[in-house]
Amino acid sequence: MGQGLTANLSPRKLAVLTAIVEEYVSSGEPVSSQAVVRSAGGEIVGLSSATIRNLMVDLSEAGLLEQPHTSAGRIPTASGFRVYVERLRGGNPALTEQSRVVIDQQLQGIGSTQGFLERTSSVLAALSSGVGVALASARISDQLEHIYFSRLGGGRIMAVVVTRPGVVRDRMLTVGSDLAVAELEAAASYLNENFRGWTLDAIREELGHRIETERSEYQQLLSRVKELWKQALPAGETVVQTVYVDGVANLVGSHADRDRLRAMMQALEAKQHLVDLLNAYIDAQQKSVRVVFDLEEYAPGMEGLVLVAAPATIGGETRGALAVIGPQRMQYEQTMGAVSYVAQLFDRMLHAGNPTERP
User: Fold this and answer.
1) How far apart are CA 219 and CA 237, in angstroms?
2) Is residue 303 helix, strand or coil?
3) Which of 26, 55, 196, 255 is the most buried (most CB within 10 A)?
4) For 291-344, how does the pLDDT look when each residue is reduced to its tens digit (9 = 90+)?
5) Is the model's pLDDT at 189 over the cut of 80?
6) Order of strands across the sheet that contains 290-292
7) Tens of pLDDT along 196-223?
């Protein structure tokens, strides 16, 4: 929709729309024709206030601007923001040198997927004043580095699985009997000593084989190990995902309506919703940052929010996703540039192993 509308807009109308979006993002107030004249550049230099008003009427009739009150100026609609974003995408959104330096300093020296993505959520939240989200994905073809079981009582156990790419996944398990700490330690030791470096799917298959062939005294231990592993990585699960979120409080000042804000907070705090959201909209085939409007169509609590995201890849293989979720009134160029730069840095640092080199 955005690209089609952009193609149908004259350079003057596109310039007026751009000026209105940027002024509105900066001030938060409806934009008047006089304000556009004051910020005039490019195609609208020298145009009168009356001419600007006529162009604003045309943009309103096209559904790109709206007028909150009869005597007020104009503000961009969701479609207007889309056109603005498409224009930025066509020109490769820029990131200030200061922001690059901040990102480099915050992420320098991190050598694992887990550590990078965990830090990324807070870095993106700080730079965008929105919600920073990072999704880490471990595949069953990844190799086991370490596993740990923690007894919580009541038949509940916390399993922590660490894979060679550096992804850590914790999962709550429920077992029929309340296993003792010593039994859990024995199960973890067996897995770590026998299967470190094995792929996750190969471990599942080998455990089934060993139960059938090992001596009887190992049967109880192996059965326990197999049951714990089965719950930690269920059959049929090909990707294990962990999501990190930071900066939810940044939205408090962006939405005055308490009910909407409460629904928004609940949607953002339900991390599985964020995992599903990123999986629905982001894929490894993307070559640039994607901006998604109308998130309420996916989750009603996200009405008025925008997703700016990119896949996190290492050597062309997807290892997660990086994103910012914020209000429509956000600094799009800064946010898109930050997400794009961090995604590039992720590949360079963890694939090429050179955290200081820049594109």
Assistant:
1) 26
2) coil
3) 55
4) 988 888 777 777 888 999 998 887 777 778 899 998 888 999 999 999 999 988
5) yes
6) 239-246, 131-139, 317-327, 305-314, 290-292
7) 888 877 887 788 777 766 655 566 777 7
Confidence of residue 166 (pLDDT cuts 50, 70, 90): low
Segment holding 162, helix H or strand E: strand 156-163
Q: Which domains does the chain have, with CATH numbers?
A: 2-90 (1.10.10.10), 97-139+241-352 (3.30.450.40), 144-232 (3.30.390)
Cβ atoms 187, 177 nearer than 8 A: no
Q: How far apart are CA 258 and CA 24, in angstroms?
A: 23
Per-residue pLDDT tens digits for 168-179 = 666 778 776 777
Distance from C-alpha of 151 to C-alpha of 53, rounded to nearest angstrom: 68
**54-62 contacts, C-beta under 8 A, 24 or more apart:** 55/12, 55/13, 55/16, 56/16, 56/20, 58/13, 59/13, 59/16, 59/17, 59/20, 62/5, 62/9
Tens of pLDDT, residue by residue over 240-282, are 677 888 887 777 655 555 666 666 667 666 666 777 788 777 7
- Residues 6+ away with beta carbon under 8 Å from 101: none
Contact between 162 and 168 under an 8 Å Cβ cutoff? The reply is yes
DSSP 169-220: EEEEEE-SS---HHHHHHHHHHHHHHHTTSBHHHHHHHHHHHHHHS-GGGHH
Residues 246 and 295: their CA atoms lie apart, in Å, by: 19
Amino acid symbol at 131? V
Of residues 143 and 287, the one with the higher pLDDT is 143
Amino acid at 160: V
Q: How far lies 241's CA from each of 120, 156, 229, in Å?
A: 16, 21, 16
pLDDT > 90? residue 58: yes
Q: Is 149 helix (H, G, I), strand (E, B) or coil?
A: strand
Q: How far apart are CA 265 and CA 260, in angstroms?
A: 9
